[in-house]
Amino acid sequence: MSTKEVAYSILDTLSDEKLQAFITLFADENQVARLETELMANDPNAPRFNSVEELFKELESE
């Protein structure tokens, strides 16, 4: 399975609300960097994700 196919399969599992939140959040690379910086500043043990799939698993568990 290609990376693109994996990404689409993950996106297909999201509710409309979570998909919109994801698009809004990650539409801007600067926003991603700011969020990551905030997480690290507030919690040095904040989770770090090695892939988008890991991120989606975390989001789905909430």
Structural description of this entry:
The protein is an all-alpha fold and 62 residues long. It is built from four helices and no strands. It has helices spanning 3-12, 16-26, 29-42, 52-61. The chain is globular, with a radius of gyration of 13 Å. The N and C termini lie far apart (27 Å).
Can you tag this structure with a few keywords?
single chain, mainly alpha, 62 residues
Describe, in short, the structure shown.
The protein has one domain.
Topology:
Blueprint: H1 3-12, H2 16-26, H3 29-42, H4 52-61
Helix content: over 70%
Share of residues in strands: under 5%
Computed Rg: 13 Å
- What coarse outline follows from CA principal-axis ratios? globular
Overall pLDDT: 79
How many strands appear in the DSSP assignment? Answer: 0
